[in-house]
Amino acid sequence: MDTAHLKAFLKIADSASISRAAESLGIAQPSLSQQLLRLEDEIGFSLFERTARGVTLTEAGHVFRERARQILHATEQAVADARHLRADARGQVVLAMPPSLMRVVGARLVEELARQAPSVRLRLVEAYSGAARGWLETEKIDLGVLYEVHPLRHLATRTLASEELVLAGPSGRFAADAKVEIAALAAEPLVLPGPQHGLRQLLDRDAARLGLTLQIAHEIDSLDTTISLVEHAAALTVLPLCAAAGAREKGWISTASIGDPPLRRTLTLARNPSHVLTHASIMVEGLLCRVMADCASAGLWRADANGE
User: Fold this and answer.
1) What is the CATH number of domain 3-86?
2) DSSP-assigned beta bridge partners for residue 303
3) Are 18 and 32 in contact (CB under 8 A)?
């Protein structure tokens, strides 16, 4: 379908007159009438009712007008995206990721980007999955790392890694290399993030599958506060191992693997397809994948990372 025909149709619809539309487009009225007839022949139905005073949209024409606008917008967006990719990587990219992952890769990503693409300004934002998903949908951020539990409608995604989750308690609660069954999660009070967050949704899902009821003592959307509560024996929590490693090495908390094989979660990188795709955001995406893979292979992060 010729986009020129769609543009002509929209101009006629807006003008309610073929003659006025032809004048606005700078073409002869017979030529515009022929374009409209060819379009109607192609789609198989009439778009306008012809009257002595001009034209009015048919019912089908009203529906077609909305779709035609969407098609033209998508075409213009594709051209704009391609032009952005021809340019050097520059400009700002906003990337949101969970606090636990930020501790592992945040500084390393900034340093690597400064070396490879100094014209790109990276803004890193700590956010749990629920908040990051909302920002992606409203186009407030370019990229977001989420914990994939439910299908992410309207978002383009790629799998980044899967990482081990552990049960964390106060110092001395668990011996080195301790293991617990998933059922142990329902035996004690827990401090977890709110129900809109990916980790919580994963635990709620697994608990429901096993017929367990989790004892939620506190809902805290702060990693530091959660670790502090665990340190002071207020409750246990479930964390990715990378989030617990620092406090465990300092002797503040202890951890145990959950289940056999160990409980894991998947990290997904998401972007909104309707948001402008820039060379800078593609550069950041590629570097993030490589930095995550490097951290995993160096033993800094216990995860299976996809470095592609």
Assistant:
1) 1.10.10.10
2) 163
3) yes
* Strand segments (E) across 30-74: 48-51, 54-57
The pTM of the whole model exceeds 0.90: no
| Rounded-to-integer distance, Cα 248 and Cα 273, Å | 40
* CATH node for 162-264: 3.40.190.290
Comparing 3-86 with 162-264, is the CATH topology the same?
no
Q: How many Cβ atoms from other residues are within 10 Å of residue 193's Cβ?
A: 23
The beta-strand segments (E) located in the chain are: 48-51, 54-57, 91-97, 120-126, 143-147, 156-170, 178-180, 189-192, 215-219, 237-240, 253-258, 264-271, 303-305
With contact defined as beta carbons under 8 Å apart, do 146 and 198 qualify? Answer: yes
In CATH terms, the superfamily for domain 91-161+266-305 is: Periplasmic binding protein-like II (3.40.190.10)
Pairwise CA distance, residues 67 & 208, whole Å: 42
Do 187 and 258 form a contact (C-beta atoms < 8 A)?
no
The whole-angstrom separation of Cα 102 and Cα 155 is 22
The answer to whether 53 and 9 have CB atoms below 8 angstroms apart is: no
Other C-beta atoms closer than 10 Å to the C-beta of 125 total 15
Local confidence pLDDT in tens for the 308 residues of the chain: 788 889 999 999 999 999 999 999 899 999 989 999 999 899 999 999 988 888 999 999 999 999 999 888 888 877 776 666 655 667 899 999 999 899 899 999 999 999 998 989 999 999 988 889 999 999 999 999 998 656 667 889 999 999 999 999 999 999 988 999 999 899 999 999 998 888 898 899 999 999 999 999 999 999 999 999 999 998 999 999 888 888 998 999 999 999 989 899 899 999 998 887 888 899 999 999 999 999 988 888 878 887 55
Domain ranges of the chain: 3-86, 91-161+266-305, 162-264
